[in-house]
What we know:
Layout: E1 2-11, E2 16-18, H1 19-22, H2 30-37, E3 41-43, H3 51-66, E4 75-79, H4 90-97, E5 104-108, H5 114-128, E6 133-141, E7 159-169, H6 172-175, H7 181-191, E8 205-212, E9 220-221, E10 224-228, H8 230-233, E11 245-249, E12 253-254, H9 256-278, E13 287-290, H10 295-305, E14 312-313, H11 316-319, H12 326-336, E15 345-352, E16 356-363
Parallel strand pairs: 4-5, 4-6, 13-14, 13-15
Antiparallel strand pairs: 1-7, 2-3, 6-7, 8-16, 9-12, 10-11, 15-16
Helix pairs in contact: 3-4, 9-10
The structure holds acetyl coenzyme *A.
Amino acid sequence: KGCKLVGCGSAVPNLKVSNDDLAKIVDTSDEWISVRTGIRNRHILAGNDSLTALSAEAARKALQMAEVDPDDVDLVLLCTSTPEDLFGSAPQIQKELGCKRNPLAYDITAACSGFLLGLVSAACYIRGGGFSNVLVIGADALSRYVDWTDRGTCILFGDAAGIGLKLIVASFELLSQLEHAVFSLRRFAVHISPNSACNSEEDGLFGFDMHSDGGGQRNLNAPIVENEVDHALGSNGSVLGFPPRRSSYSCIQMKGNEVFRFAVRCVPQSIESALQKAGLTVSSIDWLLLHQANQRIIDAVATRLEVPPEQVISNLANYGNTSAASIPLALDEAVRGGKVKLGDTIAAAGFGAGLTWGSAIVRW
Ligand code: ACO
């Protein structure tokens, strides 16, 4: 069994915040931010906006593109570090989409690498059998955990949701037995390329490479904060033998230059490793699509891999670093803008807190 990306969608909150807007609250400037990061605007959840609703909006667009009914979704993976419920938000998205068969829906936490991990997980589910249509959602609202007095971090992040829909594509013999045989056949036919450098033409995920390094957590984190609440209980609290507490998370803490160095070192290695596993080389890819954190990181990785600028996808000027949403958001824009075409091969890579990083070579 193989699997393919067959739809994408994205959504961002309405509120747009420019570099000049930020210069009104912290000591910074449009010039500093755009030269050091490439970012000019970001969209921020405000008022009654919810990440769950944003994710559902993006998911509807992906389902529409793929011509898949919500009732035919049989797995929802929400890749996020900022769920709207401690116990996860994926089931709420499933509910908002009205998936009547109660498909499994759960959250995956891997910061800015989350979407890639979700894609790889979806592929494993599909290849293992029993799952056909998997919604992989990358969504984050890091603005909720930013210290808006810290100019080193508050300029970087924006909120968004992006979706990739994976669909089973089986071998020719099995196609007629599939629930979505007609649809699959059409897609499958379009994807076959006699000149393809890839051996497994029936599969849209050619190779991947994923890593973590807990030792690097100190460079990028938002640790738990224990607030003692025993003062509210008076002396009664002590009878329990421990101070009752209510936990929350601190704001994002980051050593930017360490994260920068880590990304520029590890991401090219990871892409090369994923390409090698796929039996491909850099020259086989049509597009380089990295987590959108900093234009200088994107440029440095492209230079190391010798990918020319015209093959590099970048939209962070408009959205900032949207964490797990950045890859599907950029993919969606590139697909709908006619840049990425059916059959194109994309080297995608994520990196971020954990530390986590990884790559996947996919065919659109
Ligand atoms: N405006 C003006 N000056 C600033 C600002 C700002 N917004 N932020 C920092 N500065 C100052 C610093 O205070 C410092 O001043 P000093 O020299 O007087 O001490 C100077 O600018 C240089 O600071 P650096 O931190 O060394 O600047 P750098 O060139 O490293 O750029 C940046 C900082 C943009 C954060 C960069 O390091 C970066 O992008 N790192 C990667 C971040 C990243 O990719 N994070 C991924 C997160 S993904 C996830 O999982 C959440």
